[in-house]
Amino acid sequence: MIDIIDGALFQRMVIHASASISAQKQSINELNVFPVPDGDTGTNMSLTIATAALEAKKKPSRSIGQAAATNASALLRGARGNSGVILSLLFRGVSKALKEKDEADGLTFAAALNEGVSAAYKAVMKPAEGTILTVSRLASAKAAEVAREHNSVDTVLEAAIAEGQIALADTVHQNPVLKKAGVVDAGGKGFLLILQGMLDELRGIPAPDISNDGPDVVQDKADFAAMDEEITFAFDTVFIVRKTSDQSLEPYRDYLNRIGDSLVIGEDDDSFKVHVHTNTPGDALNEAQKYGILELAKIENMRTQAEDLAAGRKAQSTDDLDIVEAELETGSCQSAPADKKYGIVAVSVGAGLDSVFRDLGVDGLISGGQTMNPSTEDILRVIRSTPAELVFVLPNNKNIIMAAEQCVGLVEDREVVVLPTRTVPQGIAATLAMDPDARLADNLAAMQKAMSNVRTSEITYAARDSDFDGFQIHEGDYMALADGQLFGTDQTITTLLERLAQADSQQQAEFINIFYGKDVTPEAAQEALDIFQRLCPNAEVTLLSGGQPVYYYMISAE
C-alpha cells in the first residue's frame, strides 16, 4: 500500500488513467441517451486526458505540485466537449491545492480532490445533479472523511471510488432523462474510470494495452546505450493528423511498416496520432497528408541522444526548444497584429457552410461539430490568428460552448467574447447582426437578439436502438430534431421533411434556409425545397449546399 505520492508517481497515475478510460470509451459512449451519431462523452474525456498523459511523458516532474500544474495546463488545452472541460476543471482545482508541494499524503490528496470539485462547481453556471459533478462531489467528500482515519493515498482513492460507484448508481434516479433511459451518467462513469486507473497504478496493476498509449520514455544511460546497439531506424517520429476523409488507414499502416518499425497508430473520429521509428520521417509525414491535415509533429534522432547519454552529456531533445515547443503545443505563437476593432471566429463543418461564413466576413473557421468537438487549444489557435482587438467566438454547438469559454482570459493582447450559439444557423444570424462600427454593448445585444430569433431543425439518423421520451427508435431510423429536442422519427425522410415544414416554427417564419448535407444528392435536396415551398407559402425558402456530415438537412427559420 502506498501512502504518499510524488510528482513522478502522480504522472504515471495520469498515464494509467488515460489508458483505462481509452480502453472503455465506447462503453461510456453507449450510455448516451440521445441516439444521434455524436462526439460522445467517452471519446471527449479520453481525448482530453490523453493530452495530459502525453505531456506527462514528455515533461517528467519529481514535485507533485509541478506535475499537477503540468497536468492541469495540458487538460485545459486539450479539453473537448462539456465532459472534457469539467474534467479539466476538476484537475485544475487539484493543481491549485497541490501547488508548491513536493509530495502528497492521503489528507493532502483528499483535500486536493475536494478543491477540484469546488473549482468545477464554481465554473459551471447551473450545476445539475445526477452528473459527473454529483459523482465527483460525493466521492471526494468520502475521501476526505476516510483520510482523517487512514492517511494513505491508496486508501483515500479506494474509498472515493467505492462511494462514487454508489453515487453513480443513483444518478439514474436523480436525472429525469437518465431515468427514462435506465442508464447512469456517462461523465460520472468516466471520472470513476480515471480514479480507478490512478489506483491501479498505485497497486501495480498493468494498464490496458491501447494503441494511443504512446511510446515509453527511455530515462537512463544504460537504456540508451543498449538501445543504440539495436537502432535500425534513427528518427523517433510522432505526429498528429486531422482527418479530411473517412478512408481507411490500413494502406498507410502498411506503408509505414515498410519504412520503419515500432509503429503505433491511435485513431479517433476526427484525427489520428502516429508514432514510428524511421530513417525517412519526411516521407512518413508527406504520405500522411493524403489522409488529412498535419497538425503537430515531433522528430528526434535516437542515435545522437544515445551517444550523448553514453558520454555523460545531456541528450538534446525537442523539449529543449522551448519557444518552438510552445508554438506547436499551445498555439502560443505571436498573435496576429490587430488591424481592426472586431473579429469573428466560428466553428463550422462542411465546405458549403464554411463558404457561407467566409462570405459573411468571418475571420477564422474551426473545423468541428457534433462528431468533432474541437479542443480549447484548437479554438485558441484561431483566436490568436485573428487580427482584431476583440474576437467574437461562435461555438455553434452546445457541446463546444464550455471549451470556447475556457479561452476567455487566455489571450493577453485581445479580448475574447463567447456568444453561446448552439447551432450553425444561430452563428450565421449572429454574424449578420455584427456591426463593425457599433459599440460592444450594442453589438452584443444585436447578435444575441438575432441568434434567439432563429429556430433550427435537423434531420439525422439513429446510431443505435433507443426508447427515448416516448419514441421507440431503431438503429438507422431517420430522426428529426427541433432546437435540439427530438421532434419525430420515421423510416422515410420525406415524411419527416413534410412534418417539419408544417411545424409552427416554419409556418410562422418569413425566411427559411435549407442546408443539405454531403450525403444528400442535388435531386433529393430539390425535393426538400419543393416540399417547403409548397407547405410554407408565406416564407422565402432558400436551398444551399452545406456539405455537413451526419445531418442530412439543417433548416433555419426566422
Keywords:
alpha+beta; globular; 23 helices; 6-stranded mixed sheet; 558 residues; 18 strands; 4-stranded antiparallel sheet
Helix amount: 40-55%
What's the Cα radius of gyration?
Answer: 25 Å
Kindly estimate the percentage of residues that lie in beta strands according to DSSP. 15-25%
* Largest pleated sheet: 6 strands, mixed
- Strand tally: 18
What's the helix count? 23
Q: What kind of assembly state do the chains in view correspond to? A: single chain
Coarse shape: globular
Report strand order across the widest sheet: 15-14-11-18-16-17
Could you tell me the mean pLDDT?
85
Distance between the termini: 63 Å
Structural class: alpha+beta
Low-confidence stretches: 212-229, 320-333
If you had to describe this structure to a student in words, what would you say it looks like?
The protein is α+β, with helices and mostly antiparallel strands. The chain has 23 helices and 18 strands. The strands form five sheets. Strands 15-14-11-18-16-17 form a six-stranded mixed β-sheet, sandwiched between helices. A four-stranded antiparallel β-sheet has the order 4-5-3-6. It has a four-stranded parallel β-sheet with strand order 8-7-9-10, with helices on both faces. The longest helix is centred in the first third of the chain and has 22 residues, at 153-174. It is globular. Mean pLDDT is 85; it is low at 212-229 and 320-333.
